[in-house]
Design a protein that fits this description.
Elements: E1 7-10, H1 16-27, E2 31-36, H2 39-49, E3 53-57, H3 63-68, E4 76-81, H4 96-117, E5 121-130, H5 143-163, E6 169-175, H6 190-200, H7 212-223, E7 234-237
Parallel strand pairs: 1-2, 1-4, 2-3, 4-5, 5-6, 6-7
Amino acid sequence: MKLQNKTALITGGTSGIGLATAQDFIKEGAKVIITGRDETTLNEAVQQLGENASGIVCDAGNMQDILALPGKITSLDILFCNAGYGKFAPIEAVTTQQFDELFDVLVKGVFFTTQALLPLMKEGGAIIFNTSVVTLYGSPYASIYSAAKSAVASFIKTFATECTTRGIRVNGVSPGYTESKGFEKTGLSAEQIEGVKQSVIPTLPFKRFGKAMEIAKAVSFLASDDASYLHATELVVDGGYSTIK
């Protein structure tokens, strides 16, 4: 029960890594608040998580929703900025709408969610950002997604410098290829998604995608006192993909 008597907020907590992290936080003794854009999906996730979970409808790319968050929360020990997804296209095909959409959710949303909730964070608390190993190498069709996630990786360092005096640790988890419903938001067809998976899996050291719970366990570690001397660190959880070639 490493998170006993802790209160955590997880953005984008209705599926994938966010939902798995909520499950593990609760298992470790925390009370968890999750956010999601769709009220029906949010309510279903809260029901699945049980009595130690609650939900707030919040679009991570909508400033009005973000600015309303502090009025719905009393205090926090843990903030996991997880909400987000990727959309991929060659340079020539990227539109200003796609650019703004990803940066609004992945960069602007992360920054202002943290800004809004920082006054509610307790001393000894932990902020965790979800980044991506895509920032560690060049990947075709991922120019905008990679740039947005690189900005989040930068937040880990810059936020840490300001939160040190508050006694709040700031770290990030950097997942590799992970089984998630997030693939459905990429704009690719089911056939294209399956094609990507079949082409990628042989290049992975363990010949499989990571599981959402495997990423969640790393987030729980960063949120707990077991990581009390980890600060301004990005923990890569990719099965060695970004290092072993």
